[in-house]
Write a structure and sequence with these properties.
245 residues; mainly alpha
Length: 245
């Protein structure tokens, strides 16, 4: 078990040390600062500033989630890893653990953004407003989101077995879907009766992700976890059947 956890940490460590992660994080904080100082200075609470931060960070979450499995394929280490001391199931479980660790890192990053917003607008926000946030709820929401979206990314990578095109195109498409889903959340919340088509969409991980970014609820978290488990099983079945050269 320790070796499996160590493998998971090495996967995340390599991602955190990548230029893409460092540059992406810097861009997210710049984007958040624009909202804090120029677009809505003092007009939002910390949750709203974090929501805008997460809308940008979501693209990074998707991109990094693709890399959890795609890095092994790109660096041609899949044959060594999947044919070594670990079974393919154990390797895929280690990838899921990596996604959970990534969720915790995303949570810490978001907390830093919230604290930054609180300190930047001391008169309207301040440290006290940051302290009173539901930090545990945010952690659960982000871990559930990263786990599910990451598991979906693993399905896509395991099917295509292509890295560069899949990572870039997949990240852009899922990023756009998330922005559109945020608009659907606003629309649905204004409706007295939700049409069948929209109701079905509200049960998808894309819609629930936008809801969780606004504030988690137990039902949404449970549905996301169910989606994540389903995606993981699909990716596991594909990788167990795939011939790795």
């Amino acid at each position: 078990m320790f070796k499996l956890l160590n493998l998971s940490w090495k996967t995340i460590k390599n991602i955190l040390q990548s230029k893409q992660y460092i540059l992406g994080t810097i861009l997210c904080f710049i984007y958040s600062a624009m909202w804090i100082f120029f677009i809505q200075p003092g007009g939002y609470d910390i949750n709203c500033y974090n929501f805008e931060f997460l809308r940008m960070l979501y693209v990074g979450i998707v991109y990094l989630s693709f890399l959890v499995l795609a890095n092994d394929i790109e660096h041609n280490t899949t044959k060594t890893i999947f044919s070594g001391v670990f079974t393919r199931t154990e390797i895929m479980i280690s990838k899921i653990i990596s996604l959970i660790l990534l969720g915790v890192i995303v949570w810490i990053t978001t907390e830093v953004n919230g604290l930054f917003a609180a300190l930047s607008i001391p008169n309207k926000l301040g440290v006290e407003s940051f302290v009173h946030l539901n930090h545990l709820r945010l952690l659960i929401a982000l871990v559930a989101t990263t786990f599910t979206i990451g598991a979906l990314a693993m399905v896509i990578v395991s099917i295509t077995y292509e890295t560069k095109i899949t990572v870039v195109v997949g990240s852009l498409i899922l990023g756009v879907v998330n922005f559109l889903a945020a608009a659907f959340v606003v629309t649905v919340n204004k409706l007295v009766e939700v049409p069948t088509g929209l109701y079905i969409f509200t049960k998808t991980p894309f819609y629930i992700t936008s809801e969780l970014m606004n504030g988690s609820n137990l039902n949404g978290v449970l549905v996301m976890i169910c989606w994540g488990i389903a995606f993981f099983i699909i990716s596991l079945l594909i990788m167990n059947k795939r011939e790795i050269k």
